[in-house]
Amino acid sequence: MDFNSTESWVFINTSFPILPVIAPNRSCMEAYLQRLAHLDEGLFSDFYGLWIALMIINSLIFLAGMVLNTVALYVFCFRTKHKTTSVIYTINLAVTDLLVNLSLPTRILLYYSGGACLTCSYMHIFSYFVNMYCSILFLTCICVDRYLAIVQVEASRRWRNSSVAKCVCVSVWLLAIVVTYSILSTAFQPTGCCLSKLLFLTITEFFLPLIIIVVFTLRIMWALADRRLMQQSRERRRRAVQLLTTVLIIFTVCFTPFHVRQVVVYFHPDMPHHVIVYHLTVTLSSLNSCMDPVVYCFVTANFQATMRHLFRRAEPEQTSGDIISMQHSSKASGDTANAIANNVIMMTKIPTSPQRDSLGKNLAVLAALLTRTESVASAAVDSSPGAELGSTSPFSKLVKHPRLLCDSEPDMT
To answer: Which sequence ranges are marked TM in the entry (predicted)?
Structure first.
């Protein structure tokens, strides 16, 4: 495209930098896409090193995001038995992140072609911004859901169910599509009257969710600090705070720079280095698709346990001889041995699929308990009660087959 021609120019007020487009014999839509493509042409011609770096970064984001979000979808869809409201919102968030990653090849192709592919430009713009706004809204839904679950427990029971969550998800997808279409159709208008509308859409799609997340996060932290909230365990409180803090950090880091730049361009269209800022902020918002899997770790209690179970290496089975070699020379009474054995038996009555992280702590305590009890049993082997314990008690079976306690697969809740 020759920008030195004598053809007339039209300036379009959009959230993107004000650049000239050729008006004659071109539709508004094609002119708008030509102007967007000029951003890539300017990057390619003026900042070649950054152009190469962005191609590499987007390729890495594409690969990492595809792997992480595919695994996350597998875990939540096939390894999670109870589809709670948080899980439903998280599944949709993983889908949007996966679609963002699928749109990255078109951006890489745009970088490679120097902005010459207008079809790739439109496909990338529409799909990318639909999924970006879906990510923003689903992160907001997760935060609101945690607020209802922790602060408004009784009042929110009728709202926190799978049917309502599915309706909310459908509404979010429709809203994101409508808003993105409104932004693009407004940008296609060759008039200068659309600035206020675009500014309103930007505030609605980003700054309003940001305010909701910040206010609800502070409200939840204030509620969790109340010691009278006895029904919330310490571990659950800690995980809730970690989830909300992670959502706020990801939301702020990934999406704030891009939308702040949008507002600045509204009022200062001649902002210097707008091409660099545009590409850097768009790439940073794409990084959200790789950071959201951090949120997934706090949505269900044993997501991390399932991930470890999927990727763990096979461990060698421990034999009874290995246990006997760890005995100490301590002595205790037969009653103490029976009491310890009963404690071990009670631990085996824990549900077969406990939280994996809690299981790790229990197994560490159990290992020490088994060692001590073995010593007690060996010290009392000559006595009648001890002989009965060693031959018939469930404890002797646990000593011979210790892996019975840890071979169960985690159960997502």
So the answer is: 48-75, 87-105, 125-144, 164-184, 199-222, 243-264, 276-303
From the list 232, 93, 230, the residue with the least C-alpha distance to 169 is 93
Give one word for 271, left, alpha or beta, with left for phi > 0 and alpha for psi -120 to 50: beta
Most confident of 218-222, 356-360, 371-375: 218-222
Q: How many helices (H) and strands (E) does the chain have?
A: 16, 2
Q: Which residues are within 8 A (CB) of 396 and not within 5 positions of it... i.e. 6 or more apart?
A: 377, 389, 390
What lies within 8 Å, CB to CB, of 70 at 6+ separation is: 98
Strand, coil or helix: 300: coil
Which residues, in sequence order, are bridge partners of residue 80?
412
The domain limits of the chain are 9-300, 320-405
What 3-state class would DSSP assign to 22? strand
Chain-centre distance of CA 11, in angstroms?
40
**Residue 320 CB neighbours (<10 A):** 13
The residue among 329, 207, 216 whose CA lies nearest residue 259 is 207
Residue 155's SS3 state is coil
Contacts of 154 (CB under 8 A, 6+ apart): none
265-302 confidence digits (pLDDT tens): 778 777 777 777 888 888 899 899 888 888 887 766 66
Please say whether the structural domain 9-300 has been given the CATH code 1.20.1070.10.
yes
Backbone angles phi, psi at 26, to 5 degrees: -135, 140
Beta carbons of 199 and 127 less than 8 angstroms apart: no
Nearest by Cα to 39 from 24, 57, 21, 23: 21
Look at residue 83 and give its three-state secondary structure.
coil
Non-local CB neighbours of 339 within 8 Å, separated by 6+ positions: none
Please name the amino acid found at residue 122. Y
- As a whole number of angstroms, the distance between CA 180 and CA 170 comes to 16
Which residues are CB-contacts of 179 (< 8 A; sequence separation ≥ 6)?
A: 133, 201, 204, 205
Q: Report whether 254 contacts 287 (CB < 8 A).
A: yes
